[in-house]
Amino acid sequence: MRLSPEKTLITHIDEGLDFLGWRIQRHRKRGTNRFYVYTYPARKAVMAVMGKVKTSCRRMDTNQPLDVLLLQLNRMLRGWCAHFRPGVSSATFAYLSAYTWARVIGWLRRKHRRTTVKELRRRYCGGGWWLGTRERQLFNPAKVSTTRYRYRGTVIPSPWPVTG
Questions:
Q1: Which residues contact 109 (CB under 8 A, 6 or more apart)?
Q2: Phi and psi angles of residue 71, each rounded to the nearest 5 degrees, phi first
């Protein structure tokens, strides 16, 4: 195996690196002097999913019902959130949630040109804030709970026999 100098990056863990859509970097934990390695979605991955949401909302014809747009967005957002769920992703999920909501509201405003946002909320949010129809609701990435790897240290059994 040969390493390509153009693709090989040697960096300090405090500077961090992007790998398969993840940003891996060591930070000091707030309130302590201890340092931990955190994995969270890379900026490029976040920008890519935001671009897909934007493109979907732009390309979807306003003659289509809201359900068609929600179905397309929900599939994309569920998959993306499932991939980034094991990291430190809650803030990113909240940001993506607000971004998606704003894009869908923008699509609805193009669909109903003379209607106010208040009326759109009454019609499509059931008086609340989250968009949906009778059949489906917009997937909310902010509600996705993240799972973190639990450090077990020496509790993990060794696969190799212990020689005395």
A1: 115, 117, 120
A2: -60, -45
